[in-house]
Write a structure and sequence with these properties.
It is built from three helices and six strands. The protein is an alpha+beta fold. The protein has one domain (13-88): Alpha-Beta Plaits (2-Layer Sandwich). 14% of the residues are buried.
Length: 107
């Protein structure tokens, strides 16, 4: 960082600034949901909580959803869908078209 000018240092993106990171987001179809808690148990980011036997995403500053799709893969009733994907340093780096968001392969 010693070679950057002061103005350049202000524009270096970091992970600890919420405006530089967009977490993933999933939506739940409560008509299909059975409340089995598999999605909240398997979530590696601990972004899904159960409230009255219904899954919900944690509020925005607390969620760290990586859009890994693990919750989608384990849901037996297909009640979870990816709404938005995880993007790091949005607006600062050139992004490559990632294509459609698909759940991971299951065996």
């Amino acid at each position: 960082m010693g070679k950057f000018k002061l103005l350049e240092r202000l524009y270096i993106p970091t992970y600890n600034k919420p405006s530089h990171v967009q977490c993933g987001e999933v939506v739940f179809d409560y008509e299909k949901c059975t409340g089995d808690k598999l999605c909240s148990v398997i979530c590696p980011a601990d972004s899904i909580v159960m409230v009255d036997k219904k899954p919900q995403m944690k509020p925005s500053p607390m969620t760290e959803c990586m859009a890994c799709g693990a919750c989608i893969a384990v849901c037996p009733t297909k009640a979870i869908h990816m709404k938005s994907t995880f993007r790091v340093l949005k607006g600062y780096l050139k992004t490559i078209d990632l294509g459609d968001i698909l759940p991971p392969r299951t065996i």
